[in-house]
């Protein structure tokens, strides 16, 4: 080989080594920053707030019916979370704690280099509920809103819902997107330990699966189908209201959902002239005072079965006797006691979020 060839070869080797070295340095730099982010150990008044301080408010479907199921479960309803204007709270910290709960959320802290505007806060998508709070220029926490400018962000990723617990892959995706947002804002992001939160998510999901029950009482025609006009008359006389999902809803005086009346096969009732079967349904963990709601539901079910000439049956079309209904009532009490002991009261904001 000539001297020119040797020089060319040497330059090529040097170039490859340089590229390799630069990539190795970049990887080391990223790992160092990520390790620093996940090594969060400083206390935070927002993140360390006791969980019982946030058991207030409202949000909505894993179906595991027990004793008296409801047939094929309907599609999960869309989560409904209180918007900031619906929360009658004057203290910004109370607002922050009511929206993000360290026992339910994996909460990232984002510290931008300068204030970050709402328009710069990119949407994060990982398949779980995410809420973002910002520390405004007035030094008050608020749910981020158009036109807002923030010196600090708290971004919460919900640990559990009815689709199951947060996965490690979802958590990694979340962290990557938050880190990218922090870099664009010229700042840094910090996170709780992933292993700890994943373990909490698994335990919480196990608890939720144990108490998640949808009780359905079916009224089946023994002869002719039930005319929808008569069904409507009875439902409205009982205080139920027909809503846009094609079902009748029983609500409390404050508007909270108690139970529903639907066609057993979940066809919109306003699209039918008659139906051979109906279902009264109670979503157990989402209803506060569920024992009384169950009593009202069973009374209405028995009255409708008698008046319409139908049979009250369970999911396997077995006749439901008073003793069967009493057994369900006892199981219901056990579930609500377990939820209270866990600090997740039925119908509370925590329950409505977890069972959504």
Explain the overall architecture.
This protein is of the alpha+beta class and 356 residues long. The protein has two domains: 129 residues, Cell Division Protein Zipa, Chain: A, CATH 3.30.1400; 142 residues, Cell Division Protein Zipa, Chain: A (2-Layer Sandwich), CATH 3.30.1400. 38% of the residues lie in helices and 20% in strands. Helix 6 runs antiparallel to helix 7. The longest helix is centred in the first third of the chain and has 36 residues. The termini are far apart.
Highlighted features:
356 residues; elongated; 38% helix; six-stranded antiparallel sheet; Cell Division Protein Zipa, Chain: A; alpha+beta; 2 domains
- How many E strands? 16
Gyration radius (Cα, Å) is 27 Å
Q: What ranges have pLDDT less than 50 throughout 5 or more consecutive residues?
A: 29-90
What's the CATH first level of the largest domain?
Alpha Beta
Reported CATH architecture of the largest domain: 2-Layer Sandwich
CATH-assigned homologous superfamily of the largest domain: ZipA, C-terminal FtsZ-binding domain
Pattern of helices and strands: HHEEEEEEEHEHEEHEEEEEHEHH
Number of domains: 2
Structural class: alpha+beta
Kindly, what is the distance between the CA atoms of the first and last residues, rounded to a whole number of angstroms?
A: 72 Å
Residues in β-strands, percent: 15-25%
CATH topology of the largest domain: Cell Division Protein Zipa, Chain: A
């Amino acid at each position: 080989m000539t001297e020119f060839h040797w020089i060319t070869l040497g330059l090529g080797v040097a170039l490859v080594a340089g590229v390799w070295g630069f990539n190795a340095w970049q990887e080391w730099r990223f790992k160092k920053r990520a390790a620093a982010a996940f090594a969060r150990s400083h206390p935070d008044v927002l993140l360390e707030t006791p969980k019982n301080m946030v058991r207030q408010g409202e949000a909505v479907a894993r179906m595991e019916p027990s004793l008296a199921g409801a047939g094929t479960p309907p599609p999960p309803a869309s989560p409904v979370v209180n918007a900031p204007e619906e929360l009658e709270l004057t203290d910004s910290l109370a607002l922050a704690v009511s929206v993000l709960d360290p026992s339910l959320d994996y909460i990232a802290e984002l510290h931008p280099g300068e204030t970050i505007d709402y328009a710069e806060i990119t949407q994060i998508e990982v398949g779980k509920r995410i809420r973002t709070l910002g520390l405004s220029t007035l030094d008050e926490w608020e749910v981020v809103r158009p036109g807002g400018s923030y010196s600090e962000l708290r971004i919460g990723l919900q640990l559990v819902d009815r689709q199951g617990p947060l996965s490690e892959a979802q958590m990694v995706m979340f962290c990557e997107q938050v880190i990218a947002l922090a870099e664009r804002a010229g700042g840094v992001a910090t996170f709780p330990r992933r292993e700890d939160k994943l373990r909490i998510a698994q335990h919480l999901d196990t608890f939720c699966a144990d108490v998640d029950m949808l009780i359905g009482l079916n009224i089946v025609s023994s002869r002719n189908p039930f005319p929808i006009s008569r069904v409507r008359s009875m439902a409205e006389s009982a205080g139920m209201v027909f809503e846009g999902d094609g079902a009748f809803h029983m609500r409390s005086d404050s508007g909270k959902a108690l139970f529903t009346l639907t066609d057993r096969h979940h066809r919109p009732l306003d699209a039918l002239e008659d139906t051979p079967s109906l279902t009264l349904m109670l979503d157990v963990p989402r209803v506060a005072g569920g024992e009384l709601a169950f009593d009202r539901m069973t009374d209405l079910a028995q009255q409708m079965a008698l008046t319409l000439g139908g049979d009250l049956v369970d999911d396997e079309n077995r006749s439901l006797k008073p003793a069967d209904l009493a057994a369900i009532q006892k199981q219901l009490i056990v579930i609500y006691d377990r939820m209270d002991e866990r600090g997740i009261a039925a119908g509370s904001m925590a329950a409505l979020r977890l069972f959504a």
